[in-house]
Amino acid sequence: MKRICLLTAFVMALATLAGCQGHLAMVAATSPARELRSAQAYHYYTAAQLARRNGNLVQAGEWLRQAMAADPDSAWLRLELARLAIEEGDTAAAVRLIEENIKVHPDHIASLHLLGVLQDRLDQPQAAIDAFEKVIRLDPEAENAYLFLGAIHRKAQDWENARRVYREMVTHFPSSYLGHLFLGQAASRLGQAQEAEAHLRQALFVEPEMEAPRFELIQLFRALSDADAGERAEQITRLYKEILDLDPTNARAIFELSLIYDELAHTDEVRQLLGPLAVQSRTDPGPIQVFIELYLETRNYFAAAILLEHMLSADPDNDTLHYFRGVVFNELERRQEALASFDRVRPDSQYFHNASAHMAFIYQQQGQIPEAIARLNQVLAQDPDNPEIFHYLGSFYEEMEDFQQAAQLLEKGVALDPDNTAMLFRLGVVYDKAGRKQECIETMKAVVAKDPENANALNYLGYTYADLGVELDAAEQFIQQALRIKPEDGYIIDSLGWVYYQKGLYRQALEQILRAVALVPQDPVILEHLGDVREKLGQWAKALEAYEKALGLAEKGQDGLNAKIQRIREALAKPGSP
Question: How many CA atoms, within 13 angstroms, populate the side-chain half-sphere of residue 235?
């Protein structure tokens, strides 16, 4: 377990330093007695440390300032004040104190180092780089400065500079495991295979039980040409086996080696590897988390499907595996297989609700809304206080145009989760579709009250008023507020045009609706609005063109469009028509 402890210790150290705690470890230990010039300053410093240990940071700060008064030139005391500011969560004050320190003591290494840490934390990479570069110039033996500087370059994927930093580091620290590991990684990313392999091998020489260099070597060998494919395949397999000899439960190595064996049709080896992992996944989320990170988050669904099939062959009643198999097949658009997998997830499984929701949405995509509703009702029978299920069910009934039932379900969901603005918005839409305009307006106002930046609700309010021909000034105000949030939203721009139309400002309406059509050229409602405006302006031929385009796209409201088209054609047929 040595490899795990070492790597974990380093990761924890970096995480701690990134949070600006424990940064004293980055510089040589300093004695207060050696740093302070007077007994009085030492006395106040000691009192500050006692207050700090007791959690009284305010009192500690007062004592440190008393110490500073007794020894005003002390770079060390100002740095202690900066560290205290960090503990208090005042990063800006800490930076200010350190920068003051550096003005007076420009070569104070501990201040430069902590400034670099803070600037990296504040997402000021160039300033952090400058600070760490200066630390290294002043003290080429400042090992951790190389690690911080290299980490900034690696985060930016600046592999050339990362390699430069780590090369300098291993010159001064030839036995640095991390120096060789990160140098090997940087060289690999730059396509320098020989240099990368040499340093990764050196990292293993320094720490033979570590797995990180082995995974880097595997990645390096996979990226090489096929000239020595057979030899590289053997090297890769051997590295995976070494990792598993050191840690037989390493899920990443198990998954990746299993895929190699699957390509070679070594089914027995695959089952030997994946069988125990499949059983483990019933109670331990660790293997599944690795699976998600490696294959689902990277959208490598084909590899995921292969691994799940093998694991299920070893543990065919595993709810966890059936759920993720359903997820993978759904992503691969193999809907029936996805449904079959989700259906295998038992009601007592932690994944049952999610599996049922997936099934419902697949049914919805296939136009099988009653089946979707039936599935969600099964979940509701188990979990009658789940607001999300009411939300989904309400949406499905809305799609079936059963607005009364949709509203009842959404009302129950909102009662359970009154701060859920997405569900509240959906309820407002359903009220609108049911012709319950005033309830729609009140509900949308409630959404805006809870979420003043909800552009969709603001637009809905404004458009509803405009469509009713009432409160037009308020309607314009709501829509302008929505446009400040989403200035290029064609639907909101159309709403503004419709307000102008209702106000009789047809030229202004035309300007806005033409913008909306440019952004959303295939929306029948916007095209119909364009026709309405052009008709008011006497542009009958252009109005007819807009109405006919709208009719070709419309699924509803065709009778109204046909009537408008007939009216325009009759007008155009009259002598002297424009």
Answer: 17
